[in-house]
Structures are given as structure tokens and as C-alpha cells.
Amino acid sequence: MLRMDWQRSVGLLVALLSVVAVGWPYTESLADYNLNTNASANAPIDYWGEWPDHDYHPSPDNWRFPMYTIFLDRIANGDPTNDNINGTTFEHVIDSNQMRHGGDLVGLIDSLDYIKGMGFKAIYFAGTYLMNLPWAYDGYSPVDTTLLDMHHGTLEDWRTTITEIHKRDMYVIVDNTLATLSNLIGFKGHLNDSADFLATEYEVEWITDRQYVDFQFSNEYNETCTYPKFWNETGYPITTGGVQDLKGCYNSDFDQYGELEAFGNFPDWKRQLTKFASVQDRLREWHEPVRNVITRHACIQIASLDVDGFRFDKAVQGTLEPLADIISTYRECAKKYGKHNFFLPGEITSGNTFGSLYLGRGRQPDQVPDSVDVAIKLTNDSDSEYFLRDDGLQALDSAAFHYTIYRSMTRFLGMDGNLVAGFDLPTDFIEAWNGMLETNDFLNAFTGELDPRHMFGVSNQDNFRWPAIKNGTVKYLLGLYIVTLELPGIPLVLWGEEQAMYVFDATASNYLFGRQPMTYQTAWWTHGCFSLNTSKFYDFPNDKGLDGCNDITVTYDQRNPAHPLRNIMKRMFEIREQYPVANDGLYLETLSQLTHNVYLPGSETTPTVTGLWSVLRTYYPGVQQNATQSNGTLWLVYQNGNTTATYGTSCTNQTAALLAPFDSGKTLKNLFYPYDELTLEDGPGGSGAYGCARNLTLDPWEYRAYVEAASFVDPRPTITDFVPGHDARLISPADTGESLAIQLGFSQPMDCDGLTQAISVNSTTTTGITASFDTANVTCANITARTTSNHFVGEVPTVWTWSATLQNVYHGVHQLTVNNITSVAGTHTNAVDKFLFRLGTETNPLISPLANYSTTLLHQSDNGSYYIHHDAAGADQFRYSTSFGSSWSPWTAYTGGNTTIDLTAWSGTSAQKWKGTHVRVQYFSRLTGSSDYLQEGDAGWKEGVARRFPHMWWNGPYNQYGYDAGLDSRMRFDADDLRWKYDFVYEWPSVGQISIWGTDEDGTPDTTGVYGDVDNSSVVQRLPPSYLSSNVINITELPPFPHLGWTISLNDANLRYELIPVGSGWAQLVLYVLLWVVPLLMALAGVVIFIRTFYRVQLNTDGNVAKDDKLPLLVWRRLRGQSSDESSERALSAAAAAAA
User: Fold this and answer.
1) Among 83, 47, 48, 54, which residue's Cα sits nearest to residue 156?
2) Hey, what's the signal peptide range on this chain (predicted)?
3) Taking a C-beta distance cutoff of 8 angstroms, is the pair 631, 710 a contact?
4) What is the DSSP string of 177-212?
């Protein structure tokens, strides 16, 4: 059956894995994606692969530089042919933000200049690049440990990409899930409910036909097993509380102790033994044979791909001593390939006390030095009393995204709620840093040198984006300042933070995150109004996040080189380069803290400390060799209040003075625009003490960084503005070639002629003509400094412009590249900046997301064939479907004009067939990095009526989700208001789903096109198959009286639905009364008819004719009042007596 191609494809995928399982360890058909090249391997431990004839990229000496976090799927799509490479309908789903977007390695290469141009020196690939379930875009559920995810590209594509990254002097950090895999194993008797922790373990089974290739479970029980050592969150070993019940175990590669949810308070040792969040099977990494396979396969990744580090997901859910053994093995492997500083950070979500066990050689609370001064001078030759493990068994290098600092950051920036973990550091950043110096082993496992490398971020892929909330963008910038310039370590930025991206992807109230792609899409726009009440924060101040579905710029390309946040971020990173103390200084001291406590309603007795901090950052005296170098002092001053305030009103009062780490009389200069200067006065201690800044006024959430004015280094120039605007969509009715005014803005005067020569244009047009500049009429000018209307703190201004006319601009997509230009002062931008704009008609889907249906798209020729009339200038490729997306033609080069199409023969049920001919065309644009452009059309359908689905059914418990075919569940299409409708009268509350294909030939409900509203946003979408049962529309409210039910009314153009009251309670009441009254009336009528018939007299003894009686005799008498015929009466009496 045509519409079930996806099922056959899933079957092929299952069969593929089964073939690998039977014919492992090497299958020729997967050679392009297989890290294992040892065709003669007899077991997984024998796998091997290397990058042939390759010079491996050495590790950096210092990892303290900015890193950019990406989900590869969410960056850019460079090759649409791998979007649905598994052949299912659950991969690249354009109208869903819960499945793949299509990002791949080709698209990432196209975006590397954008990433490099911000000042990043490393890219952290969040989620593994290993084979995952078809819809698993995040990569955290691998089904194999040596096969690559085919959606991203081949092994050669990976090598090409990593080479391009290394060419740009950047490094590659990839995710490593340690011991967690996919969701293929279920606990017997608990496939449909939770399997609580069981110390004696469960028997297990494969959930489906899909199985792991290299690891197997067993239900053969060993009465005794050698368990690893466990620690409590207090930082000490634990032997009670259930640990003592761990004696035997199954002879399995997997832990079979049950499952725990992702959120909740559970002992750490239980988390280390259970299936994560009920969806990730856990390998028994504490069993040496399993551990050896894990490390072997990870070493293949180093050897085959030349990666520079692993970031360990859920690191503290690995058992401690086995994890240290694993990581030490990775270090030895990396050394073989010239990587003598291979980076190995890990995710630590616990408090600092427990996390300290995992850092370096580990440190229990009873091993903490007496002071910071003692701790910072420790070496690997120091007394072993300060370390948990021997040298050579170091575990994590650092925390990857420091959750302790993140929790403190949320409170510092005004969030409310229970924002702490047990046994953690103080919320004050300076106190927290000094606490880390004491409790964390910061010695580099390779060099033995003091080398703090915690990765600090304001958000990450598992947390909300700050611009979504009230005042969130300015709060984010203050947070970025803290993690970039105050805390010694690695600034970690999530993709899109530099563009103030804010849309939520979350579908649950306790898990808020935003993972919007960088390139064009419509799903995040369609589903951009997030209204779930979160349980994570008290009174969550959602603001822009409520309204993303009404902001069309959400669909724009998010790689804008001139975005003001991007330029502020660049400046912060530049400060770290220009002033090395901002990168490597390890000494922090609070000089002044002019604050007060604010008690928020959801935080009970925990205050939010609010006000100003004055902080010294410098090299640690007596420890860092460069402590005496010039520019070795950085003064950081900032406030987290929500109002403008003046601080330092007195320089004689110690409690009111704003102290600075420079002598009185020194002139200081702010490193952020407007680069203000101030001169210090004597502080409260008089001459020789710290200087004092008087009456410093700071805006809400303002930050500054001061150095001596004589040591100030001018910032590099940067591009600050582009007219007509990055990814502007310009409407043009005719494709005749136009002239367009272009303007570029810069932060410094530039070399006008050099800039003109450095700009190039790339055009994707149907005509094939590339636009060009009229270089004879270029205008360059100094202007009064201006910033955007946002007026962000430290926003880089435009002070100089370059203007020219772009000629021969035809319909399509155009890219302007500005290549590393030079200022008048001779300073380079050190960036390759690329801007986009589009030109075309309103009906071009590449111009407007509203052009997703066209009445002129599909036509029928005189000979009966059908053809597409394209209007998609700017596209590179296209494909089409005549079965509403159930099957597709191959991707084809786009040339415009008309395309004759082949209609797919129908083989579904009669109920699934539709009237007329429908076509769905999908377009791909390389310059915009997206294949999310759709346009649909019809022929032989209602004239001028748009439809995007063939039919719909409303299914739910009331009809057993479609299994009860006796109830009519088909929705009707209202051609007048273009909505699908179904009148639903049932018990309340209730739930339901919208099914596109209804029931298959065998009576089974089809699951390929099921829509629900899991986040209660009044917009439906599809979810992966594993979430099918939860993807429902919840109808919790009773219809208002006198209505009895709801009409589900869906707009298929934007997937929004309404619940419209339907049915009349008064009519129901009348019917109810009639059902009582009518039977009584009918009964009385029946009695009357019976009596009349029974007493009807036919005997006549006197020959007189009697009139027909209408009622029984007695009643008739009473009505008449007298007898009208005594003779007849006597005759009747006689007849009655005779009968008796």
C-alpha cells in the first residue's frame, strides 16, 4: 500500500540492524557510516578504525577559550537528501518542532565562518553523532557505538568537516553518553508501567524487533557479583540505605535494576544503576568486559575522526571508580595520536560536594585543605591525604556547564523558587569560586599544572532561553559578563544566544528548553506561543515566550553577523584576548558589596542579594608566574537591580564606599562602549589604600570592566548594520532585474576602497544572473554614533557607513560576503561575514511562509497529465508528493518553469481516498540552509478552496482511538471558513487526537499522521511514535450552558484549533420531557382504542339502526346527560343479560 511506505521503511531499518546483528562486526552496505573498518573482527572488542594517512591535530595548551554549543540538526541544512534517510515519516517533519530539522555537516561547513567570526575557538557537538532512532534529533539515545547517524553525513563528511574546523583554528568536542544508550529493552511485566528500583534486578526483554548489535542482556542470574563502591551526596562512601542489598546480578551487559525518572529526589547510587528517565538503557560500565568495549569504541572515534575532546553526558550517573578507569584509558588513547591535552569535561548536575569526587583525583570533605592558599599550591606530588585516587586515575577535567553556577545565576538574575542542590557552594560567585579552589582538584592530568577549566554558561540545551522572559535579554548579558569576564574558566554559549533567540520547544512543565534552528523553519513559529505553567520556577515571568507564534521574524535566518548581542559577545571575548588576566587570572576578591536582601515569595527564607559588586580579578599572588605583568588587574563592577541606582555616595564611609583596585588619582577606562573614563579618589583608608569611585550611576543590570586608561587597547572593528536587513524578504511583482540600495555600518572608519574590493555577491536565481555592485558610485561616510533602539549595555555603535547600489537583482536569494576587511587604522575584522536577503513575489514560498498554498501551482494539460507551475525563485532543489506526503519523488535540481509530474497509484482504503488531485512541493535552498519550504495545490477540487490534508478523523477513548469503527469519527471540511470540524458530545473532561489517515485496511488505526496538543497551546502537532499516547488534545472544561458539547474546529493552514460550544440544552430538556410525556399519552390512547374496540356492539334485536358510539356507553351517557333511545337501551340491556 502506497501510504504505508513508512512502515516498510521502518521494517527495512529494523532489518538492517538485524542484518548487522547477524553479520556483525562489519557490513559493506554501511561502510560509509562505519567507524569500524576491521572486516575480520570476531567480537566488538576487535573493532578498529583509523583515519588513513592523516596528520592529527594537536591539543591546545590552554582550553580556557569560548566554546559554542550546537545540536548539529539545528544549525543548517546543506543536503536535503539525508533529511529522511531512514525512509520513515517520523524524521524531518516540517510542521513539528519535536523531530528533525535537517541540519547536517554540509550546512555546518557553510556556517563555520559565522561561528568563527564571533571569536569561538571550539565547537561542542551536543548529542552523539552515532546512529539514533530515526526521529531522535538530539543524539542522546544511540542504538550503536560505532555506526554514524546517517542524517548528518558520511564518515568522509565528518572528516571533511573536522578538517575545516581545524583549519579555522578551532577545536572539536563531541558528546559521549558513557553508558546510556537508546530505549530498546523493557522490564518483563512492566512494558506499560514503571519498574521501580529492585536490588535483585528484573528479567528483561526486547521491546521490539530492534536490538543492539554489540551488547546483549541476560536473564541468567549470578548469586554473587562484585559491585563498585558508591558515594553519598555528602561526599562520603555509603554502605547502607539499600546498598547492602546489592549482592547478586544478572549475567548481562546492561543494568536491569529498573528505572527512575529524570526529575525527582533519588539516591545517586540508584541513578547510577537504573534506566534513565525510562527511555535510556544503561550499560553495566562497572563490569570490566563491558567497560573494555566502551573504551575501545570511543578510542576508535578519536583515531577515526581526530576529535579533540569528549564531554560526558550525565557524568555523575557513572559509577565513580570505573569512570576514572574509563577516562584514564581515553587519555592514553589520545596520547597515541599526539593529543597531549585531550579535553574530558562532564555534566555534573549535583551539588559541589558530590561533584568534587569526580573532578581530577577527587576530594572528599575530609580531604579538603585548610585554606585556598594551601589548596592552590597543591601538586600531584603533594600528600595523598588531599586526593581520593592515585595519580593516573584522574576522572573529569571539569564540569561541562557548571550547574552550581547556573543555579546561583538564576537567583542572581531574579528568578524565584527552590533553586539549590544539596551540599553545594554559596550562591555568591566570588565565594563559590574560592570554594571551588579548595574542594576541586584543578590539576591538569597531562601536565600536572594548575588548570581550572570549568565550563560556565548562562543557559544550555536543557534550560530556557533568557530573552523569553521579562527583561530577559539584558539579564542574559549580565550573566554572560559574569561567566566570560569574572569566573575563571571556559565561557560556554548555546547556539542562537547571540541572536536573542527565545522560542520554547518544551512540552512538559518541568523541563523548559529552547532548541530553535538557526535557519528558516515554520514549526517554531507555528508553535511559538508557550503557555505551560512551569513547576521549576515560582511565578515564571514568561514574556516574549508567550507570543512567538505572532512574531514572523522567528522564521528568519538567525545567522545575522550584525546582531547587537553578537557584537557585545564578540567584545567580551576580545577582552579576554587583549587582556590575558581576563582569561587566566585566578584571583578574585570582592572589594565592595553595596547590596540588600530581597525576599521573593517562592524562595521562603532564601534571599536574593541585590545591588552592586566591586570585584578585583588578577593573577593569584605567589602561584601564577605572570602575576606581576602589566595589565594584570581588571576591575569589574556591576549591579543586578532592576532600577537605575547611584553607588559610592561617600569615599570616607567604609560601608558606602565604592572601592577600586587601583591607586587614588588613577584614571580608568571602561572596556565597554561608551568607553567612559573616571578618576579615583582616596578611599576610606586614605593614601596607599584602594582608590574610591564616587557617585557611579548604573542602569538596571549594567556591567562595566575598567583598566588603567593608559593601558586601554582599542577594540577591533566590527560590522554593526546591514540595510535592507539580514534575511529581509523584499516583494517584487516582476522578475525583471532591479537596483537595490545597500548599506553596511561599522564600529570604526574603514578602508573604503578595500571594503569595496572585499565584498562579493552570490545569487541563486532562476535566470542564473548574479547581482553586482555599481562600484563607480560608492559612498563612505562618518556618522554620529548610533546604536539600535534596544540600547543594550555595551552595545557596539555604528560610526561609519558604506553605501552602494546593487544592480541586476533578480528574484531569488542573494548573499553578500564581507571578507576580513581593514579599518583606516589598519586593524582587521578577523571575520568573514555573510548577509542574506530575498526578492520575489508574495506567492513564492521562499519569500513568505504564508505562501504555503497556491491556486496556480497544479494544472492539468489537454492530454490529461498534470504539471507544477513553480514560483520558487531562489530554490536549488525540489521534490513533490501527490499523496499528501506519504511518498515523495527524488530531489531534483530546480530550474523554475513547469514540471510534469507522475501521479502515484492509490492503494489505500476507500475511506482514505480523496477527491481531486493534490500536490505538495518541497523546496531546498542552500544559501538559506533549509528545506522547510512547502507549497500545496489542487486540481479537480473545489475552486479556490485551500486544503492541506485529505481528510481527518477525531479519535479518542470514546471510540477506542479508532478501533471502534461503529462510531462516525470523520471530521467534515467546511469550505466556507476553510476549517475541519467535528461535533463532539461526550463526558467531560475528555481527550482526543486528530488522525489524518484514520483506519487501515485491517481495521488498525493508522499512526503516521496523528496530531495532538501536548503543550495545551491550541496548536496541534505530531510527536515521535514513542510519545503517541500522550499527544492528545485535552478538553477539560465543560461546555457553557445550555450547550452540550464542543465543535473541534481546525485551521489546517496554521494548525490552530478552537473549541466552539455546540448543541442546545433546552432542546435536550424538551426531548427529555417528551420522552416522559409521549409514552403516557400513547398509553392512554392505546387504552382508549382497546376499550372502544372491545365494547363495539354488532347485535341489533329490534331492527333499529344505532349510531356509532365514539366513547364507551357510560361515558357517552354522561356526556349527553340522558338516554336518547329507550328502546335501543333496553335492547342493549337484554343482549348484555343474555350474554351473561
Assistant:
1) 54
2) 1-23
3) no
4) -TTB--S-EEETT-SSS-----TT---EEESSS---
Q: How confident is the model at residue 965 (pLDDT cuts 50, 70, 90)?
A: confident
Identify whether the C-beta of residue 806 lies closer than 8 Å to the C-beta of residue 740.
yes
Grid cell digits, residue 215: 551488547
Mean pLDDT, the chain, whole residue set: 92
- Within 10 angstroms of residue 972's Cβ, the number of other Cβ atoms is 12
Closest CA to 482 of 544, 411, 400, 422: 411
Q: What topology does CATH give the domain 719-840?
A: Immunoglobulin-like (2.60.40)
Q: Are 948 and 1055 in contact (CB under 8 A)?
A: no
- Alpha-carbon gap, residue 815 to 830, rounded angstroms: 19
pTM of this structure: 0.93
Q: Which amino acid is at 950?
A: P
pLDDT, position 1138: 41
- Which SS3 state, helix, strand or coil, does residue 266 take? coil
Taking the C-alpha atoms of residue 1109 and residue 1005, their distance in angstroms, rounded to an integer, is: 65
Quote the CA–CA distance of 491 and 573 in Å, as a whole number.
Answer: 9
Angle (nearest 5°) at CA 821 between 818 and 822: 160
Number of Cβ within a 10 Å radius of residue 870? 22
Match 588531599 to its residue by C-alpha cell. Answer: 386
- The pLDDT of residue 568: 98
In this structure, is the dihedral angle defined by the CA atoms of residues 658, 663, 667 and 671, taken in order, positive or negative? negative
| Average pLDDT score over residue span 1106-1135 | 42
In this structure, which topology does domain 953-1062 adopt according to CATH? Immunoglobulin-like (2.60.40)
Q: How many whole angstroms separate alpha carbon 750 and alpha carbon 716?
A: 11
The pairing of strands 1045-1051 and 1056-1062 is: antiparallel
> Residue 268 and residue 282: Cα distance in Å, rounded?
15
C-alpha to C-alpha distance for 933 and 1076, rounded to whole angstroms: 60
What fold characterizes domain 67-181+286-568?
Answer: TIM Barrel (3.20.20)
Fold classified for 579-711: Immunoglobulin-like (2.60.40)
Helix (H, G, I), strand (E, B) or coil at 575: helix
Distance CA 319, CA 272 (A): 6
Residue type at 307? V
Q: What is the largest CA-CA distance in the chain?
A: 149
Q: Are the CB atoms for 492 and 457 separated by under 8 Å?
A: yes
